[in-house]
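User: My collaborator sent over this chain with a note saying "see what the structure looks like." That's all I know about it. Can you take a look?
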Amino acid sequence: MMNRIYKKIDNGERITKKEAIELLEKGDFLKLGELANKIRFKKHPEKTVTFILDTNINYTNICYVGCMFCAFYRNRNDKDAYTLGIEQMRIKIKDAEKKGIETALIQGGLNPAIPYKYYLEMVRKLSKSSVHIHAFSPPEIDLMAKISKKSIKEVLIDLKNAGLTTIPGGGAEILAENVRKRISPKKIDTDRWLEIMKEAHNLNIRTTATMMFGHVETKKDIVEHLIRLRELQDETHGFSAFIAWDFKKENNELGKRIERSVTGIDYLRIVAISRIILDNFDNIQASWASQGKDVGEIALHFGANDMGSMLVEENVMRQAGFRAESTIEDIAYVIKKAGFQPALRSTEYKIVKYL
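Assistant: Without extra context I'll predict from the sequence alone. Here is the result:
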């Protein structure tokens, strides 16, 4: 059975959901890496590995959803709860601009007290800088629709008219309802997440797609997540990249309830299976900031063609007890050590500069 699946992948044929589950459950680790690497070089024959210099600005930590896996959110009456003013954010963007940062990833908690006009003003004012504004995951856009009493399409048109051209893939976690009901029951469901992404793609707003694994999900749930992404990509071709990271246990409710931990081997297997299943995605990221530089380096031989983000400012994983720091020189060195040519890129995966 496995040899037939291997041969199918080697021939460039698409595997089915059933075959993908079989592959993830029983596939040989090194064989998965070999097959994923072959697909990577078919899509990117050049030996270039990209990464981006960016920063992560969280405009509020107030969130009514209270996901079990999140160490970042606060209730509105907590002493350390905050919502940044537009001018505060503009100062952060100006600082990023001075540092030569390419992109600001802007996301926040789901705070229903924030008026709709705040989001539009934020995009209008911040997008005037040279820093690309990559903002608002599907749950945030869903909240904007509720607050404004507009459709998702109308909200996205408003945001686009204000200057937004790309959206991050946050809030996906695992796109399987049995998992979402256990770890984030108040968050939008799978169909709504996909609907919002589809509307964005139809308006020529490019997005990424993400997956957070290593908690209560099964291998079948992981495959379900990847297949749903593949199906939408077949329809819209609007996803620019896929990024997977593992759940961090510290300082959150879910971490107290599970003993499971994700090893480097587990992570590399996910990178490889993602490249194999997501045959219509151009870019797969190696999240060095999630597993560390050594595992990130190996992931470049397991199907990944991008080393992800520098994240000059990062708050969510730090609140969960994990902080990985680096410099452009460090990441470039890791890429060269892996046998590749490092290059800085834009949010749209255009080469900015070879290093």
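A starting point for your reply to your collaborator: The chain has a mean pLDDT of 91.
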